[in-house]
Write a structure and sequence with these properties.
The N and C termini lie close together (10 Å). The chain contains four helices and no strands. The chain is mainly alpha-helical.
Length: 74
């Protein structure tokens, strides 16, 4: 896994944590910076990157992207 893919995975984990914490959080966290960071990281993926990963990130299928990266890192 590349350093960029690790950053993406960490961002996806952080987003998942923030979403799960929303039920009890007061005030609710602003998820927009997390989405913006993931979009920025996705734009940095070089040509030849895993097409499934690119597709998942482009379509905002973050759970699928996270599972793909976790399987690759295992």
């Amino acid at each position: 896994m590349t350093a960029l893919e690790t950053d993406i995975l960490n961002g996806l984990i952080e987003l998942d944590w923030a979403v799960n914490a929303m039920a009890s959080a007061n005030p609710k966290p602003d998820l927009r910076p997390l989405f913006a960071r993931l979009d920025d990281l996705a734009r940095q993926l070089p040509k030849g990157s895993d097409p499934d990963l690119v597709h998942y990130l482009h379509k905002k299928s973050y759970q699928k992207a996270r599972l793909l990266l976790e399987q690759r890192g295992a």
